[in-house]
Amino acid sequence: MTRATLWRAWLPFVLTASAYAFFSALLARDGHSPSVALLPIPKESYYSVQAAFVAPVFGLGCVAACVVARFALSLTTSALTLREVVVALFPALTLPTLLLFVLPELAVYLLHGFDALKTAVRFTSAATGLATLFALAMALRKRFILTWTRAGWIALLTLLAQALVASPFLR
């Protein structure tokens, strides 16, 4: 596995985490706060704190997803390293979030303001979830030569692992 291969896997993560942190910092700068915050952080400073922790939390969610995928794959596939699974799945775990959640939400915010995000998130979160599920299934099927059914189930477990780790923290 070359450095270029690893970089292609990590670049979408870096772009997504950076854009998400930028958006969080922009919301904090403009004085906004989330309607719901699960962490014991004052709402008025939540987005400024989130700007700092979005990359590690999003990364931890992606790694947790890859660990679950590796375990599921190991039940019937020969020994795989976590690195192989990360390289195969990180783009599928991160690009839909960048392209269908962070950038559209940023555009909605810049064009229509904070209140419009309440409506937009209904569409962006659903589209992101479905696109991530499909991208994961495609990546699993292509890289690990799986049937659509098996790839779909592993993709669903993988996506749930990512959501369970990251969703409570990211607003």
Explain what you see:
With 171 residues, the chain is an all-alpha fold. It has one domain (3-166). It has five helices and no strands. The protein has helices spanning 3-29, 46-74, 82-112, 117-144, 148-166. α1 (3-29) packs antiparallel against α2 and α1 (3-29) runs parallel beside α3. The protein is elongated and about 50 Å long. The model has no long low-confidence stretch (mean pLDDT 91).
Quick overview of this protein structure:
By secondary structure, the chain is mostly helical.
Question: How are the SSEs ordered, and which strands pair?
Answer:
Layout: H1 3-29, H2 46-74, H3 82-112, H4 117-144, H5 148-166
Helix pairs in contact: 1-2, 1-3, 2-3, 2-5, 3-4, 4-5
Features:
171 residues, mainly alpha
Query: Which secondary-structure class do the elements indicate?
Result: mainly alpha
Number of extended strands = 0
| Global outline | elongated
Number of helices: 5
The overall average pLDDT, rounded, is 91
Strand content is under 5%
Q: Give Rg in angstroms.
A: 17 Å
User: What are the low-pLDDT stretches, counting only 5+ consecutive residues below 50?
Assistant: none
DSSP helix fraction = over 70%
Q: What can be said about the biggest beta sheet?
A: none
How far apart, in Å, are the first and last alpha carbons? Answer: 35 Å
How many structural domains are formed by the residues? 1
This entry's quaternary arrangement is single chain
What is the string of helix and strand elements? HHHHH
